[in-house]
Specification:
alpha/beta; two-stranded antiparallel sheet; Nucleotidyltransferase, domain 5; 3 domains; about 350 residues; 5-stranded mixed sheet
């Protein structure tokens, strides 16, 4: 038997069940799946899965776990194997689906998905998952709770407006809506206050947030949202990766003479980041001379205000990342450093 140089376990995560496949890469660079099994997605099932893996695993070869996130159902197993000292990679669903299309099979089910993830772990170099920072995880939960509550408040205000604008309405309905509005607004203040308290738990953390807030248009809530949604930029290697993660990267499809779609942002990323940067970009265009000049240079290329505004959003995101990493207040020179890149990305927007 050829020597095993790498082994990987693919995990398809579900609410009740984990489907696992263990595969090997031998010295001839051939991949194979050794076994596939299903285990409960609980603590006893996790232990059973590890025992099953040890039964087939080669003790001398590196072992890599690969999981595809399914809501929050993968998190408990990720924490479990990390605590045992194993390496695990969490692959985004769209990347896993694209890789599965390169395999020979046409049928997709949990077992095939697990086997595909195992082969992906053998053939690809994947980033290792690490538990999110406790403070960042707490801020992320608070930010998303605040976002949902803000949407509820807007909905209630719209209902009150529609009700009071009608010719006839029940007073008790209006009273209940007003009570809900007051309660939601009080909760919103509590959440925002808690967010501010969390950011002051560490002097370095507080200083970094204060530095980010020196950018015109970026307030504390925006800064917290961007930093928390990226886990403090812990896995961000460069600006291009960050822009792609936010779904603000420019994509264009062209083939021959018949397919030539206009350039646009991909939207394949974290929608919370894009939403958090919308109003700050408008404020930056209004109050920051550099951002306004940048916006006015881009606008004549296509005469579409939203495209130029999105470019400002992308610029703000990169600025926040740069200032957070450097731990320095905003300096206009940061805007000049990435000006050429942004203009290059938008060159295809010319009519």
């Amino acid at each position: 038997m050829d020597k095993i140089i790498k082994q990987a376990v693919g995990i398809d995560c579900g609410k009740e069940e984990l489907v696992a496949s263990i595969g090997f890469l031998d010295s001839n660079f051939q991949t194979s799946i050794k076994a596939t099994g299903a285990f409960p997605n609980n603590e006893s099932g996790h232990k059973e899965l590890i025992d099953w893996v040890n039964k087939y695993a080669d003790q001398e070869a590196a072992l890599q776990f690969v999981a595809e996130p399914t809501g929050v159902y993968h998190q408990r197993f990720c924490y479990y194997v990390t605590a045992l000292g194993y390496s695990i990679s969490v692959v985004l669903p769209n990347r896993a689906a694209s890789f599965l299309k390169t395999l020979k099979g046409k049928t997709i089910n949990d077992r095939i998905s697990a086997s595909g993830l195992a082969i992906m772990g053998l053939e690809k170099k994947l980033d290792t998952w690490s538990p999110p920072d406790t403070v960042m995880n707490q801020l992320k939960q608070l930010c998303r709770e605040r976002e949902e509550l803000t949407e509820d408040i807007t909905s209630i205000k719209n209902q009150i407006h529609a009700l009071t604008s009608s010719s006839v309405y029940a007073g008790t309905t209006l009273e209940r809506l007003q009570q809900r509005l007051q309660f939601s607004q009080a909760q919103l203040k509590e959440i925002e206050q808690e967010m501010k308290v969390v950011t002051t738990t560490n002097a370095d953390l507080e200083q970094r947030f204060n530095n980010v807030c020196t950018i015109k248009g970026v307030g504390l809530i925006t800064a917290i949202t961007v930093v928390a949604e990226t886990n403090g930029f812990s896995l961000v290697r460069n600006q291009r990766q960050l822009v792609s993660y936010a779904g603000l990267d420019v994509v264009k499809k062209q083939s021959g003479i018949s397919i030539n779609s206009p350039a646009r942002i991909s939207h394949r990323g974290n929608r919370h980041l894009r939403k958090a940067l919308h109003f700050p970009s408008l404020a930056a265009i209004r109050f920051d001379d550099n951002m306004r000049d940048f916006y006015e240079r881009l606008l004549p290329r296509h005469n579409i205000k939203m495209k130029a505004t999105v470019a400002v959003q992308r610029k703000l995101l990169v600025l926040i990342y740069t200032i957070w990493k450097k731990n320095e207040p905003y300096n206009p020179k940061y805007l000049e450093q990435s000006k050429k890149t942004a203009l290059t990305e938008l060159v295809h927007d010319r009519p």
